[in-house]
Amino acid sequence: MTGVYLVNRPQLEVEFNQNGITSTVENFIENMKEQVRNFVLSAGEEFSVDSKMIIDNVVYTVLARFNVLKSKDNEEDRESHKMKLIEFTSVDLIKGR
Fold it and tell me: Which pTM was predicted?
């Protein structure tokens, strides 16, 4: 099984807190790890995790973007049952209609 490590978790937490979405940080991290484990992701590949939530009685889609970082393990083992290093890049709140 592939290990997954979010290299900049504090940045993710700060950006989620700034957007008032503190309660979903753990869910996003777990969803991100599942995507990495379930799909073959290569270094440099970007992916996103989204979820719907209610903030102040308004439905939003929370979209967090991540990047797979290049590491020694990625270069040596294309099957990569080793650690995948993941970088959080951004979060957006998309207001529902």
Answer: 0.82
Asked if the model's pLDDT at residue 94 lies above 70, the reply is: yes
The packing angle between helices 9-18 and 25-38, to 10°, is 130
Which tokens belong to 45? 């590949």
Number of domains forming the structure of the chain: 1
What residue numbers bound the domain in which 60 lies?
3-95
Work out whether the CA dihedral 29, 34, 37, 42 comes out positive or negative: negative
Backbone angles phi, psi at 93, to 5 degrees: -105, 125
Q: Closest Cα partner for 12 from 75, 21, 72?
A: 21
31 and 65 Cβ atoms separated by less than 8 Å: no
